[in-house]
Amino acid sequence: MVLVPVPAFQDNYIWLWHNGSHAVVVDPGESAGVEVYLADHGLQLDSILVTHHHGDHTGGVAQLQARTGANVFAPAECPDLPATRVVHGSQLTVLGMPCQVLHVPGHTAGHVAYVIASDDEPPILFCGDTLFSAGCGRLFEGSPADMLASLDALARLPGDTRVCCAHEYTLSNIRFALTVEPHNAELQQWQLTCEALRADQQPTLPSTLARECQINPFLRVRQPVVRLAADRWTASQPNGTQASRPDMTDVDVLAALREWKNTF
Ligand code: ZN
Ligand code: FE
Q1: pLDDT recorded at residue 245
Q2: Most Cβ neighbours (<10 Å): which of 28, 55, 98, 127?
Q3: DSSP helix/strand/coil, 22
Q4: Which residues are close to ligand 2, an ion, with C-beta < 5 A?
């Protein structure tokens, strides 16, 4: 099985997974690059998976569907797509493999993720704009509590799960993560690895869940060093209390990190 990110727009990845003859794509915001890849490799597109309703993830669905006859799977928040609706717990079969749907609200209200399990390869997570390497999606429609619950659910997947994010945001996310955790050795190492990859125009993805649990501050809100950094940032804000809050909840920490990142 082959897993490749097809670049689109500025920094999107349209993930394409194939077995040499049949393929599935995730979040085709545009169709041209996918059509070229399919033609170059002689692939038939079986399925299109959509994680959420934003145009950079859905813009190419109709054309790809019309040209290939692929089955489209999407959450109810994409009513304009000719799709089979998926909900939390939906079980699909993709290229003969079981594919489970998780509802992961936060970035959008109806955002879903797809997890493909296989006996002989590590699982694959298509997480759209929920989880990025060293970061997470902006909270356009959900609360910090929604996002924390979604990230916690993703973090429970096996450590060797391949994390297929929909954007190449890794280096800028790492710069923020290092501000939160300057002494995190795995994070420092990941920065060197990713700088080399990007200098060579290679994607930094997929990441693995085990790595993300070591380096991603949004998956580390229970770590004392992350809590302390979030607390200090909150207290330093113009409307902050200037006093430390040892009673910060995990949701408070995530909310502070997200707000801090928005202004970083
Ligand atoms: Zn989005
Ligand atoms: Fe996006």
Answers
A1: 76
A2: 28
A3: strand
A4: 56, 129
